[in-house]
Design goal:
Length: 288
C-alpha cells in the first residue's frame, strides 16, 4: 500500500491521538495503521500505537506512555495482509516524519501527503492537422498530439491510406512521406509513440492531397488533364504541349502534313503543301 498521510496530531496527557488518512494507489485498502514515536535526538522508537478496522482508509491511532512537556516526532505506516499463496503482512513506506510536538500540550500539528502520480500509458490517437505537397512526389503531414499519456512523445509515423507501403517516420510533428506517384491522390493516417508504447491510428485521415506534375510555362494542374498519372495532369496554355507543357505546339498540329519542331513551334511541311500549318496545297508544275 501507499504511505498514509498524518492529518492531525492532537497532544493529550501522556501521549497523542494521531488522525491518519490513506490515499488509494489502485490496490486493496489497508487493514491497519501503525505509528511510532521518536525522541528529537533518537533514531529508535520509544512508543507505538495501532488501529485496525479502518473505514474508507481513515483511522485514529492512540499513543500513550510519553512524558508531558517533552517533544517527539511521529511517523506511520499502512498495513494489509496477503493470503496468496501464503499469509504475510505487506507494509507501506513510512510517512514523512511529523514536525516536533509536545506531549500534554494542546496544540495541533498537521501534515499532508501528496496524491501519488498516476502511471504513464501509451499516447492517445493523434489528429492529422494538415497534409501538403512539399517537394517532388513528397507530402508533409502535420500531426497534433491529443494526449501523451504522461510520457513525452518520441516518434511520429504516418502512412498512406491508399498504399500502406508509403510510410514516413519523424521525431517531430512534421512527417514527410516520399515516393508518391505523380498524378494520383493520397490521404494519410498517423500514430505516435512514447516510452510505454504506440497510440491507435488517428481517427480520421487527412483530406486527399493531389500530387501534381511539375507543370511548366504557366500550365495548371487539373483533374483528368492529359499527362502523367491517371487523375491529375497539366492543362497547357495555348502554344504549349507535352506532359509537362514544356514543348511548343505547332499551328494546327501541322495539319498532319508536316513535322512539328517543338523547340521553335514551327512546321516543316512535307512536299506538296506549305504555309504556317502546312494546310496550303502547292500548285502542280507541268512536266517539261
Amino acid at each position: 500500500p501507499a504511505a498514509p498521510s498524518i492529518e492531525e496530531i492532537i497532544p493529550e496527557p501522556g501521549g497523542f491521538s494521531v488522525r491518519l488518512a490513506w490515499i488509494s494507489d489502485g490496490g486493496a485498502n489497508p487493514e491497519s495503521f501503525l505509528c511510532r514515536v521518536y525522541s528529537i535526538q533518537g533514531s529508535d522508537p520509544i512508543a507505538e500505537g495501532t488501529v485496525s478496522g479502518l473505514t474508507q482508509g481513515q483511522g485514529v491511532v492512540g499513543i500513550s506512555g510519553l512524558v508531558d512537556g517533552l517533544s517527539y516526532v511521529v511517523a506511520c505506516i499502512a498495513r494489509r495482509t496477503s493470503s496468496s499463496p501464503y499469509s504475510y503482512v505487506i507494509e507501506s513506506p513510512a510517512s514523512s516524519p511529523s514536525s516536533p510536538v509536545t506531549a500534554g500540550t494542546q496544540t495541533t500539528v498537521t501534515t499532508t501527503l501528496a496524491t501519488p502520480s498516476p502511471a504513464a500509458s501509451a499516447p492517445a490517437a493523434p489528429t492529422v492537422s494538415s497534409a501538403v505537397v512539399s517537394g517532388d512526389r513528397t507530402v508533409t503531414i502535420t500531426v497534433q498530439i491529443n494526449s501523451d499519456g504522461g510520457s513525452p512523445v518520441t516518434s511520429y509515423q504516418c502512412q498512406s491510406v491508399e498504399d500502406a507501403a508509403l510510410v514516413g517516420i519523424s521525431s517531430t510533428p512534421e512527417v514527410a512521406v516520399a515516393g508518391l506517384t505523380t498524378g494520383l491522390e493520397y490521404s494519410f493516417s498517423c500514430r505516435v509513440s512514447n516510452a510505454v508504447g504506440h497510440s491507435a491510428q488517428s481517427g480520421a485521415p487527412s483530406r486527399k492531397v493531389k500530387v501534381c506534375p511539375s507543370c511548366q510555362n504557366n500550365a495548371t494542374c487539373a483533374r483528368g488533364a492529359p499527362g502523367p498519372g491517371s487523375v491529375w495532369g497539366c492543362d497547357c496554355p495555348e502554344g504549349f504541349t507535352g506532359p509537362l507543357c514544356a514543348q511548343r505546339s505547332c499551328p494546327g498540329n501541322c495539319s498532319n502534313a508536316g513535322d512539328c519542331n517543338h523547340k521553335t513551334g514551327q512546321c516543316s511541311c512535307w512536299s506538296g503543301v506549305s504555309g504556317a500549318s502546312c494546310s496550303e496545297l502547292e500548285p502542280l508544275q507541268a512536266p517539261l
